[in-house]
Amino acid sequence: MERSDRVLILGARGLVGSAFHRLLLQENFTNVVACGRRELDITDARAVLDYFRQVKPDYVLMAAGKVGGIHANSAFPWNFAYDNIVMASNVLEAVRQNGAKKVLMLGSTCIYPRLAPQPIQEESLLSGPLEPTNQWYAIAKIAGIKLGQALRRQHGISVIAAMPTNLYGPNDNFQPEYSHVLPALLHRFHAAKEQAVPKVEIWGTGSPRREFLYVDDLAAALLLLFQVYDDEQIINVGTGQDLEIRELVSLVAETVGYQGDVWYDKHRPDGSPRKQTDSTRLFELGWKPQVELREGLRHTYDWYLTALAQRALRGLVQDNFRAEI
pTM value? Predict the structure, then answer.
């Protein structure tokens, strides 16, 4: 992978895409194409084909997708399944017709069975039933993985797939109805502090365990995978350390400076009881996470405050204090 190679980032303004873009610029890559929704509707097959014919990328990061927490998955199952399958198939078909040196498909540890043995190894894929609260998204991501493997086997195109654990960092989605647990918590605790709300309600029991990865650490892992990894087997990207949601809640409240109470609505769904990844394969390639959770939370909250002051965060609802897992 040369610094003059044309690298196309799909989803370039999102959490992962923007972090990867920052890293490539820091590493002096000179031919980066940052593609967001304004440039391309990835659900439009013809538009994707035309775009790839014009851009002719050497490397493609597929970081675009429809993502969200329990509420969003439950409310919009068709959108999570259909949109993500269509986007993956459109991109891979465009690669089939136009070629590329390597494509990296970004998935999620949500693809693994609900009760997969912990820590979760890559071989656990399709070994048991999925978590019902995010099965639509998981099915779509699994379909994208299998399409990539089929493209590799039949047409010899290098398609790899990385499965990161729960991500957070600058440019995350903080919209309460659609965000994941960590940005949702940061937003709700900040809003509660600003409005002197005496109690924040959290969905579930607080007992599920989750693993969190700062997005800049993921970006470094993705660059390494582009450079040295070439196998159809999916590869996990995680820290190897997890904590209970109630521990995360305490850390977020401390970071934000919220002094009120927390109440857990145990009638709400928890999601999978635990999702800890086994990232041994990636560690053996020479990558390790650098940003500890407490430090990453501070960086993320600082970015959130700056974006909020600049009115760069849109669609935020200030009167909803539930957090999703």
Answer: 0.92
Task: Give the 3-state secondary structure of residue 162.
Answer: strand
Reading the block at residue 99, the tokens are: 């070629």
pLDDT tens for each residue of 223-277: 999 999 999 999 999 999 999 999 999 999 999 999 999 999 999 888 888 889 9
C-alpha to C-alpha distances, 276 to 137, 150, 322, nearest whole angstrom:
19, 28, 24
Residue boundaries of the structural domains of the chain: 7-309
Task: For residue 133, give the DSSP letter.
Answer: G
Amino acid identity for residue 46 in this structure: R
CATH number of 7-309: 3.40.50.720
Q: Sign of torsion, CA 91 92 93 96?
A: positive
Could you give the residue numbers annotated as active site? 137
The C-alpha atoms of residue 120 and residue 83 are separated, in whole angstroms, by: 27
DSSP state of 277: B
